[in-house]
Amino acid sequence: MTTDRIDPAAHRTPAWHETTVDGARLCYAAAGSGDPLVLLHGWPQSHLAWREQIGPLSDGRRVLAPDWLGWGASARDTALPCDYDSEVDRLARMLDALELDRVDLACHDYGGFLGLGLAQRYPDRVRRLAILNSRAHGTFVARYALLFGAFTTAARHGLGRRLVAAPPIHAVHHWGLHRYVRNGTFTPERLEQYLDMLRTPEGRRWYAHFWAGYQVRVRPELGARLGEIDCPTTVVWGIRDPAIPMATAVELAREIPNAELVRIDADHFLMEQRPEEVTEALRRWLRRPAR
User: pLDDT (tens digit, 0 to 9) for every residue of the chain, 291 residues total?
Assistant: First the structure.
């Protein structure tokens, strides 16, 4: 009798899958087996934001890293509303489509904004929660709040919407995010992968649609319910984030029972700038007993 040998490295290599959520194509990378761990990216990224974590965390876990609808390779369907409540409920329906009952959820940036809402609205779906550099229940520092607020205001009106969807928007974002090439977080090729959708009319139309549904304001209703989150929680934070105040991380760790705060010497996109430290923080979090 012969026994096939499984290559551990191959087991950790993500496979590409597709499913349908709200009638739209959702693409995701998956690796490993075991209890499910969902990694949710933020703006303006894709599952590639987690590329350094997917393999290591798939040892003993089934890791799923979606391209959230509108981003990466997933569909950009302007028929889908992008307001907060719709997006949080859509996240729950994504879990249904993936046939996942309860998951460990690690989420960054916009993903953390949605993930916080999921943990509050659907507490039985989240076994453990990790939030990484996200506006969460708060908002951005003043200059970024004004910048993003200008995008939302423009995208809700005819002329402004056309400006947000115009070809120069790619160059604007490339200039704004080039600091992450200079500090080594992104390669030029990776930044272009994230921004490539802004080179197409379809991608720009969806981008304007996204901003039209987004709200920059503080969400006091989310802050008021932080104490209701009773799953093991970690707040992993790049302390040099120029857009989101450290006070947000401190408040999350203080107000969520059973939460810890892990500080990392990094900027906003910490999974790519400090991958080993983020991976180790998440491994410690996953070792904590679940409720």
Answer: 222 333 444 457 889 999 999 999 999 999 999 999 999 999 999 999 999 999 999 998 999 999 999 999 999 999 999 999 999 999 999 999 999 999 999 999 999 999 999 999 999 999 999 999 999 999 999 999 999 999 999 999 999 999 999 999 999 999 999 999 999 999 999 999 999 999 999 999 999 999 999 999 999 999 999 999 999 999 999 999 999 999 999 999 999 998 999 999 999 999 999 999 999 999 999 999 997
Report H helices in the chain. 8-12, 51-57, 84-97, 110-121, 142-155, 158-164, 168-177, 179-182, 188-195, 201-213, 220-223, 246-255, 270-273, 275-287
- ∠ at Cα 72 (149, 273), nearest 5°? 75
Q: 182: Cβ–Cβ under 8 A, 6 or more apart, which residues?
A: none
CA distance 51 to 21: 23
For 24, phi then psi, to 5°, come to -115, 150
| DSSP annotation of 289 | P
Q: In what order do the strands lie in the sheet with 103-108?
A: 15-21, 24-31, 61-66, 35-40, 103-108, 126-132, 233-238, 259-264
What does pTM read for this prediction?
Answer: 0.94
Compute the 3-state secondary structure of the chain and give helix, strand, coil in percent, each to the nearest 5: 50, 20, 35
Q: Which two tokens stand for residue 172?
A: 């604007």
The whole-angstrom separation of Cα 49 and Cα 238 is 15
Domains and CATH numbers, the chain: 1-139+219-291 (3.40.50.1820), 140-216 (no CATH)
Q: Are 18 and 42 in contact (CB under 8 A)?
A: no
Within its chain, how far is the Cα of 188 from the centroid?
21
Q: Tokens at residue 133, please?
A: 């550099």
Q: Which residues, listed in sequence order, are joined to residue 103 by a DSSP beta bridge?
A: 126
